[in-house]
Each structure stands twice: as C-alpha cells, then as structure tokens.
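User: Please fill in residues for this 197-position structure.
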C-alpha cells in the first residue's frame, strides 16, 4: 500500500482536512496550538460555558496534545522540546471542543474515542498521530513562540501558539470521513485472537 505525504499549511481548513485519508502522512508548516493538561481542557469547557474568556482565539484552530519542556528567561517563554501526550485522557472534553470551536485538526498519541470521531466528521477535523518519543525530531520544527495563554498555570499546562516548519511527518489516524486506523488495528487484533493464531 502506498503512503501519500502532504505538506500543508496550518491551521487547516475544513476543506483541507476533508482531503486527507486515514493512513496519509502530513508535514506541518504554519501555526499550531499545544497543551498537555487535563486542567487546561476542563478550563476550555468553562470558557465555552462563559465562565471566563479564552486565553487566545481557538476558533478553527489546530489543537494538539503536545507536552513541552520550557523556560522563561528575560521575559521570553522558550520551548526547549515538545513531545506527544496520550489523547485518550481528553475523551470527555474533545467532542464539545471539536464541535463548538470548529477544530479542523487535533492530535497527539493513542487516538480518540468514537464520540470524538463523530464530532470530527461533523466539523471536518482530522486526528494526527505523532511519533511517541520523537521529541528531538519534533522540537527541531519549532520556529517561534507566538502567544502564551494562562500563565497562572504550570508551564506544560499553558496554552501555547507556535509557528512550526516541517513538523512531522505525522499520520492521519482518524480522518474526517469516519475512517479510523485505531479501530482497524483493534478489530484486526480481535480477529487474530479469536482465530487462535
């Protein structure tokens, strides 16, 4: 099976996302938003409920579950490395965030549940799977920290907008048409177990 690789400018539009298919690879240029915190995602839902404003514009964003190691020097926020965190931790939050913010790309490692995948179909959103343990390769793609939100939180929980160039390649794990590599792998493993092979 041949693998199609796309170099694309982010944030993705709905139409861009719908051109991708599960199994495609993507190299990312442009702007992404990262955070790795459960408290951050809960706070996003508070923002949707009108309890406080969002720290930056997240409408139509590409929001990734990427943890970071950073430091603040001379008033500058510097990210030394980024690495994917497990997206399934955020399953309770993601369907609403995808729908109400009209996210067109999200990702991390491990995939998302069926409720999230359904929201992704509605919004025109893809899940991109990042290489676990690939922090050196991924971090080399950081060009600039553009914006940092919620500086009252621990650094890796903050919301950070980055400019990147050549981030990836990442794999489309769940596409905007309902195709899901994680489901396929699970079903294949179940079939193999049942057959006793």
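Assistant: Residues filled in for all 197 positions:
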């Amino acid at each position: 099976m041949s693998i199609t690789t796309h170099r694309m400018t982010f944030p993705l539009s709905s139409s861009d996302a719908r051109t991708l298919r599960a199994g495609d690879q993507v190299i990312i240029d442009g702007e992404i938003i990262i955070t790795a915190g459960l408290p951050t995602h809960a706070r996003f839902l508070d923002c949707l409920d009108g309890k406080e404003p969002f720290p930056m514009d997240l409408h139509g964003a590409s929001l990734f579950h990427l943890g970071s190691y950073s430091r603040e020097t001379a008033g500058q926020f510097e990210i030394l490395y980024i690495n994917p965190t497990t997206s399934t931790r955020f399953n309770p939050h993601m369907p609403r965030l995808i729908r109400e913010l009209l996210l067109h790309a999200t990702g991390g490692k491990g995939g998302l549940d069926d409720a999230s995948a359904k929201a992704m179909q509605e919004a025109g959103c893809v899940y991109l799977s990042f290489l676990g343990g690939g922090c050196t390769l991924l971090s080399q793609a950081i060009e600039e920290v553009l914006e940092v939100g919620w500086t009252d939180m621990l650094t890796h929980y903050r919301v950070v907008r980055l400019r990147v160039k050549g981030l990836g390649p990442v794999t489309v794990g769940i596409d905007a048409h309902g195709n899901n590599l994680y489901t396929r792998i699970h079903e294949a493993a179940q079939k193999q177990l049942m057959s006793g092979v």
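For context: The longest strand covers residues 159-174.
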